[in-house]
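hiii so my PI (J.) wants the whole complex modelled not just the main chain, which honestly fair. so below is everything: four entries, each one labled with what it is. i double checked the lines twice but i was tired so who knows lol
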Amino acid sequence: MTVVQMVNQQTVPAALCVTEETHPRPDGRDQYTISEVAAFTGMSAHTLRWYERIGLMPHVDRSNTGQRRFSNRDLDWLAFVGKLRLTGMPVADMVTYAELVREGKRTEPQRKALLEATRTDVVQRIAELQDTLTVLDYKIGTYAGAEQAPERTGA
Amino acid sequence: MTVVQMVNQQTVPAALCVTEETHPRPDGRDQYTISEVAAFTGMSAHTLRWYERIGLMPHVDRSNTGQRRFSNRDLDWLAFVGKLRLTGMPVADMVTYAELVREGKRTEPQRKALLEATRTDVVQRIAELQDTLTVLDYKIGTYAGAEQAPERTGA
DNA sequence: CACTTGCCTGGAGTGCGCTCCAAGGTCTTA
DNA sequence: TAAGACCTTGGAGCGCACTCCAGGCAAGTG
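here's the output for the full assembly
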């Protein structure tokens, strides 16, 4: 049975609670194949392998035949990465963050600083977008009355 | 005298009033060289030429020696393009919009539809970012107390 | 007049984030 | 046990949005 197609479900339950275990669990096993993970995260299997290669994933378990077996912890991490990606943070920076995590507790101050910088960026992006929204609304306003498919208006 | 460096001033007066004439006028001439425009828009001269090549700019005036002379109208258009760019709209779509504008008044319904679709995207992006902010705050919270540069804390 | 600075062009190059390919091994279901 | 879906790897390729280069013209300054 082929894995169900459910790409692009970014809208996971909002409280993804990183490294806590409130994760949408595909089933009870805590062992997911790459295509399952692809389906759940909306990332492609290619991307998941690539993330691992560049050091954006902590080492993923393998089956005795060498196939990846992702854990719930991995899923949590990927959900967080997905969020960071939404902010437009460069992948290289996420790798840096991942490296800091790997280095252990003593890097927490740096990690905090990094996230705070990201936070600032996000706040600014939101402001920019809201500004853009104003412009867009103004522009749309100037087209007011111009309806799509203007023929057969008299229905 | 070289043009003043003031790259990256995205934060133009918010009411940029596309094709209206409330524009920050570099001086009174209504004729700007490419490097002046680059300074005012924060786009590189390369990018401005490229935008023209791909049809994202209405035809720009030229001096008798063939140099570009941008008008206030061009600046307005570029400000709008800058806003669209912030939304993440692909350049190809902006070109489409520019083509519609060139085709005249009868394309207004399409243009309106296009902007409305963009608006929807922007609203969604804002929501995503706000969601991300929540996650970020949660994460930062877990690092609370971890201060940058922990040595010499006892000051 | 030489020199510097700025502009022009077509086309090539860059960096990012994937995305795909080839060649092969594995797992599942009939 | 055989087909077919799935997994593995290193490395090549792609699309986007620039970004830069070479070679050349034009205008201002000492």
